[in-house]
């Protein structure tokens, strides 16, 4: 990807395009094309903790300043301040930004002097390398001012608190005993930069300002083209120096090329998505493999992981790692439920569909890879999942013996993927029998029956349950509107949970797509129904979560936390749903080649080379949420690969 001066030099365009360089552990370097930090999460060294979500921001920025042969000193960094000023404005001197093999590269021109910067992280270690190279002109003197902090990635640090402790060591300094800076000509400084502003946090209704500690500066000479001045920063084993900075860049580039080559992509878009997928596969603490749901603020969530599983692992040649992940997640099963997350500091079992997506992931793994040994190993645990759902488990999750369908719901909970809550109150609780939950239940029963038969065991009872649920699904879910009910047996609005009155919710939502898209989907495709769904929900970036003519429709996913969560599933676009939409249409023999045009163009518009979490339901469908989202990337990669 390449952008010229008209994008780089325009602050709105340059600051709205973000790059990400992961370390393979859950940490990263992240920023914008123009160099302006727009989020509290942006930094050159963001250090992972014990879980993927527990990150600390360390080295925030290295602001370049160049003294050219004329003696003029030119600053190339960029900061926005609480006053509204943007100073310095180094982006105005950018003649190009490139994303090459997943690594960002900037090119500044100051008259005849041209300087490049590359950023890379050492794979498998919390270590960043920042390399500056003189391309033309010179000689020049390069100063790199290190703005530092040490804080939780979700917060900010202020000058009215303790001053960061900076200890001088050979070739640099150690900050807060947590990370080390190393480079040429270190000169300690030590002062607060007050009122650094993050425009994206302001847009999200969060505290947008923080103070940074100017720890010191590195100084080097670039005498002739090809000369470099580099800085490394690393956490963890501070006394164990990483390789030279230029070697780190080459190591990262070589590894990224190997990741892409192993997936055997059919075209450049698939290659881009393969590299994007790699960012989400991590080993926190260097231990078991896991999946980051989205950068920069999410950690690991089982629902997201299992929806993403086929795209992230089976479509990229990572089945061995996938096997390891499935076994690890199986160990979290409790009362027939898969743990959803530990991001909150404790293990939570609060999803009705995450476990069913796990059944789907295991089934797909065995089907695609032929790994029947894993199927045999997990079969007892999967059988216990079905038994627990039949008997009843947490949150009212149980099979209705009258129709064989799965029901769920408890006061104050939102157990489906539409799980947003505002002030503790679910926005879309969907209590009753949600359509996608029962499509997943039926799909899971069939997948488990096949695994059971592959192991040489009797699957008659599973097939009986599958047959009953399928017949009930086909009888009960079709609505007079021409599409499927979103929820059956839901409490009527006038009645509290558990009240006497029930109704069937026929809101036009995309959840019903799973009734046609899954391998063992309960419904036969109907072109007229799918066209109604497409006409009402489809956008260039994927289906909306609610049709625009609904009274509850929210067209802009904007504002503070309560406002954003209130509209999260009320019309906001979710790119991951493009996967089920494409699968459903293909099963109905409908052409879908044109649906990829908008989302492929999106790869250069927000999180570079990746796919966003969400987008506005109204045109121009501006991206929102995480710029880099696992299931969005995984589902696009999966369905595009199927089309090759």
TrEMBL record:
<dbReference type="InterPro" id="IPR008928">
    <property type="entry name" value="6-hairpin_glycosidase_sf"/>
</dbReference>
<dbReference type="Pfam" id="PF12439">
    <property type="entry name" value="GDE_N"/>
</dbReference>
<dbReference type="InterPro" id="IPR012341">
    <property type="entry name" value="6hp_glycosidase-like_sf"/>
</dbReference>
<dbReference type="InterPro" id="IPR032790">
    <property type="entry name" value="GDE_C"/>
</dbReference>
<dbReference type="GO" id="GO:0005980">
    <property type="term" value="P:glycogen catabolic process"/>
</dbReference>
<protein>
    <submittedName>
        <fullName>Putative glycogen debranching enzyme</fullName>
    </submittedName>
</protein>
<feature type="domain" description="Glycogen debranching enzyme C-terminal">
    <location>
        <begin position="276"/>
        <end position="638"/>
    </location>
</feature>
<dbReference type="InterPro" id="IPR010401">
    <property type="entry name" value="AGL/Gdb1"/>
</dbReference>
<dbReference type="InterPro" id="IPR024742">
    <property type="entry name" value="Glycogen_debranch_N"/>
</dbReference>
<dbReference type="Pfam" id="PF06202">
    <property type="entry name" value="GDE_C"/>
</dbReference>
<dbReference type="GO" id="GO:0004134">
    <property type="term" value="F:4-alpha-glucanotransferase activity"/>
</dbReference>
<feature type="domain" description="Glycogen debranching enzyme bacterial and archaeal type N-terminal">
    <location>
        <begin position="17"/>
        <end position="224"/>
    </location>
</feature>
<dbReference type="GO" id="GO:0004135">
    <property type="term" value="F:amylo-alpha-1,6-glucosidase activity"/>
</dbReference>
């Amino acid at each position: 990807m390449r952008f010229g001066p008209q994008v780089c030099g325009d602050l709105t365009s340059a600051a709205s395009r973000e790059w990400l360089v992961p370390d393979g552990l859950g940490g990263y370097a992240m920023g914008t094309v123009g160099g302006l930090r727009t989020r509290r999460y942006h930094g050159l060294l963001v250090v992972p903790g014990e879980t993927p979500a527990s990150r600390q921001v360390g080295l925030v920025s290295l602001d370049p300043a160049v003294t050219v042969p004329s003696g003029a000193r030119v600053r190339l960094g960029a900061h926005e301040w609480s006053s509204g000023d943007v100073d310095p404005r180094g982006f105005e001197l950018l003649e190009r930004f490139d994303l090459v093999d997943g690594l960002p590269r900037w090119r500044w021109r100051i008259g005849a002097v041209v300087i490049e910067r590359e950023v890379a992280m050492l794979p498998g270690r919390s270590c960043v390398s920042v390399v500056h190279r003189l391309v033309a002109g010179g000689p020049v003197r390069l100063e790199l001012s290190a703005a530092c902090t040490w804080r939780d990635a979700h917060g900010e640090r202020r000058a009215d608190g303790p001053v960061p402790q900076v200890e001088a060591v050979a070739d640099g300094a150690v900050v807060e005993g947590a990370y080390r800076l190393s480079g040429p000509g270190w000169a300690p400084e030590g002062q607060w930069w007050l009122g650094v502003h993050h425009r994206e946090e302001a847009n999200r209704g969060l505290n947008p300002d923080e103070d940074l500690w100017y720890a010191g500066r590195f100084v080097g000479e670039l005498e002739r083209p090809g000369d470099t001045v580099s800085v490394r920063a690393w956490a963890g084993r501070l006394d164990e120096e990483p390789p030279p900075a230029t070697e780190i860049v080459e190591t990262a580039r070589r590894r990224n090329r190997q990741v892409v080559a192993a997936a055997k992509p059919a075209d450049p878009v698939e290659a881009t998505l393969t590299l994007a997928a790699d960012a989400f596969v991590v080993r926190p603490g260097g231990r078991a493999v896991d999946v980051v749901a989205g950068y920069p603020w999410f950690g690991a969530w089982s629902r997201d992981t299992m929806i993403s599983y086929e795209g992230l692992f089976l479509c990229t040649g990572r089945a061995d790692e996938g096997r390891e992940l499935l076994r690890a997640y199986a160990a979290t099963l409790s009362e027939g439920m898969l743990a959803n997350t530990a991001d909150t500091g404790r293990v939570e079992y609060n999803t009705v569909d995450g476990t069913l997506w796990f059944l789907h992931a295991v089934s797909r793994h065995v089907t695609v890879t032929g790994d029947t040994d894993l199927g045999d190993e997990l079969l007892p645990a999967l059988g216990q999942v079905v038994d627990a759902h039949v008997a009843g488990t947490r949150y009212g999750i149980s099979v209705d013996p009258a129709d064989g369908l799965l029901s769920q719901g408890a006061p104050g909970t939102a157990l489906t993927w539409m799980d947003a809550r505002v002030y503790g109150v679910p926005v879309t609780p969907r209590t009753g029998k949600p359509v996608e939950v029962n499509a997943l239940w039926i799909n899971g029963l069939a997948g488990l029956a096949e695994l059971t038969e592959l192991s040489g065991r009797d699957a008659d009872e599973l097939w009986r349950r599958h047959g009953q649920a399928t017949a009930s699904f086909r009888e009960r879910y079709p609505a007079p509107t021409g599409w499927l009910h979103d929820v059956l047996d839901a409490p009527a609005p006038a009645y509290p949970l558990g009240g006497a009155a029930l109704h069937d919710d026929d809101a036009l939502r995309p959840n019903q797509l799973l009734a046609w898209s899954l391998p063992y989907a309960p419904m036969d495709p109907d072109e007229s129904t799918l066209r109604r769904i497409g006409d009402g929900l489809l956008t260039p970036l994927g289906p909306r979560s609610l049709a625009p003519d609904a009274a509850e429709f929210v067209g802009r996913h904007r504002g503070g936390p309560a406002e954003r969560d209130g509209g999260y599933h009320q019309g906001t676009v979710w790119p991951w749903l493009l996967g089920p939409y494409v699968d459903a249409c293909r099963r109905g023999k409908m052409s879908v080649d044109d649906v990829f045009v908008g989302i492929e163009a999106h790869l250069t518009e927000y999180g570079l080379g990746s796919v966003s979490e969400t987008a506005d339901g109204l045109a121009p469908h501006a991206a929102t949420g995480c710029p880099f989202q696992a299931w969005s990337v995984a589902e696009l990669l999966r369905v595009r690969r199927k089309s090759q």
